[in-house]
Design brief:
8-stranded antiparallel beta sheet; 16 strands; mainly beta; 6-stranded antiparallel beta sheet; 12% helix
Length: 272
């Protein structure tokens, strides 16, 4: 009997060790010198050398990248960010003139983007999400606000962005109420891309929040975590607080009104 108990305990220990613990991506603590990194002057895409513009300080999204605790950079366009100790504030703006058609091949049949914010989980544009079950974000957002959520694909064979995952809406998980809340995402909600094909979670470029609305709204992020697979207190499986509804990528506003009433009109569901 004692031998049997020992075997059971050993099996449980091995199982516990084999699961993936949660990993803190950022709690927006004060940055130190190691949490910044200069983007290179050139990149290789489709076998060609492409300038980043950083030699003339005209690089898209800036050249001196701010890093999270995992060493991945984050940034925005049309969504001005202010990093304070303990939080990242993002103010929704409209930069459609610059980003409206940016990398349009990666988001087929979608409408114009007015703003976005992204974060990566490593410095390279290639991160394996499969050890993790999802992601959680502690945030505060005003009543009536919203944004889209997507995963961007990386194709290492050509060193280029692929087709984005299907889009989800913040309010389909948790409806902003102006108070501290938590968004819990499952990667299984992003299993297909915008062409209806499988999204490869082994090759993530970044997680992107698209079209914060309404313009002028301020979103406060306080903690971001990659959710593991251990369950329990150390890695609880992510749960949604509302129906998981895919954001339409149609250029028409009709579908928006049908699902979310008169929230903010077509802008909410415009895709990056």
């Amino acid at each position: 009997m004692q031998f049997l108990i020992s075997v059971v305990l050993l099996s449980c220990t091995v199982a516990a060790q084999s699961c993936q613990q949660d990993v803190l991506v950022d709690d927006f603590r004060a940055r130190n010198a190691s949490m910044f990194r200069q983007q290179p002057l050139t990149l290789i895409e489709d076998g060609k050398v492409v300038s980043t513009g950083c030699d003339t300080n005209t690089g898209f999204n800036g050249c001196n990248k701010t890093l999270n605790l995992m060493g991945g950079d984050f940034g925005d366009s049309g969504a001005a960010e202010v990093l304070s100790v303990g939080s990242l504030d993002i103010t929704a703006g409209n930069n459609s003139a610059v980003v409206g058609s940016f990398e349009a091949d990666a988001r087929p049949n979608t409408a114009v983007t007015i703003n976005y914010w992204f974060t990566k989980f490593n410095w390279e544009n290639d991160f394996d999400l499969t050890p993790y079950s999802g992601m959680s974000l502690d945030f505060i957002a005003p009543i009536g606000s919203d944004f889209n959520i997507t995963l961007t694909q990386w194709i290492p064979s050509v060193n280029k962005r692929g087709i984005d995952s299907q889009y989800r809406v913040l309010s389909s998980y948790v409806v902003p109420n102006g108070k501290p809340q938590t968004l819990n995402l499952k990667w299984t909600d992003f299993g297909t891309n915008l062409n209806g094909q499988p999204f490869d979670l082994k090759h993530l470029k970044d997680v992107t929040f698209v079209n914060f609305v309404p313009v002028g709204a301020v979103f406060k992020f306080t903690k971001m975590t990659l959710t593991g697979t251990c369950g329990g207190n150390g890695g609880a499986a992510p749960k949604t607080t509302g129906a998981v509804v895919a954001a339409t990528t149609s250029k028409s506003s009709a579908a928006v009104v049908g699902v979310w009433g008169s929230l903010v009109g077509a802008v909410l569901l415009l895709a990056l």
